[in-house]
Amino acid sequence: MTPELFRELVAEAALSPNVHNIQPTLWRLVDATTIAMLTHPERTLPWGDPSGRDVTTSLGAAFEGMVIAASKHGIKLSRAATETEAARLVVDGQCDPDPLAAVLTKRRTYRGRFDARRKDEAREKAQSLASRADVRLITRGDDIAAIADQADTATMRFYRDRAYRQELTSWMRLTKLDPNYARDGLNARAMEMSAPLAIAAGMVMQYPTFEILDKLQLAASLTAEAGVTKTASALVAFVQDRDADPFQTGRDWHRLWLEMTALGLAASPLTILGDDEQAATEMSQRLNLTPHQRVVTVLRAGIVDARKLPPPARLPLDEVILA
Ligand SMILES: Cc1cc2nc3c(=O)[nH]c(=O)nc-3n(C[C@H](O)[C@H](O)[C@H](O)COP(=O)(O)O)c2cc1C
Q: Quick one: CA dihedral 275, 112, 230, 221, positive or negative?
């Protein structure tokens, strides 16, 4: 693998989904047949993700992105053992392009409303996911509405933690004046907010504004997402064994999301439904999961005009490739 091709592959792998778009993955070309992946020491979420599970899941998603990107060039990459790096990939012969390669750079997180006129069409597309062992499909309007409300309630439980809010808002890019707007984190466009709304949202999250609004019982309605969630044609619950390796979970999650993209479905995850203990228990009961299984995330899915998808915000390659 030449350094030029490596850069090309990193550019595609860097588009992989990752928690809060913190982009925790660093890449190094070790030699012509070996790629190292490392965790950026500062791109972590010490408060929201103290165990590093979401960061590891993000690295797994990026790993899968790299494998798929290389497959376009007929290069088969496999995971190799490493003790010093997050992961290592080695060239392991040749392969056909992965069927998901065509949508690798097209997948986005879409946090807006879905096209109500195309609900039935979207549900039909989503049906093909129902046969996957790691998916539970929710299409009944009542169920979607109940889960939407549960997600908002769970979000409020997290938001009442001031440090959690502070960490989350540190990754929000509310206006284009923010020098990081197109580089990382969650920008207003990606959050489907107009500039004034984004600024207002940032203010609501501040201490003590949030606490005062919460006492007045206004914070919940100001941060609610249920209205958007209820426009989803389907909810795609992504289920894993409780003891699954988060790195592998990230690989599988990325593939599932790409499969949805290939079906023409836009999506955004509600990971709060897996992260909040109460919500996760409610989801397990609702979906009749075994005690060994858990919901990792629930993806809202539907159809939307491709022009509504936000452009990716990513770091320049020179910041994610190590010499
Ligand atoms: C582990 C993990 C958890 C995520 N949780 C959420 C979530 O709860 N809500 C959300 O809107 N996006 C969530 N995302 C999506 C990321 O925010 C998104 O991938 C990132 O901002 C990059 O944007 P893109 O997917 O459009 O490329 C999650 C992604 C990962 C990998």
A: positive
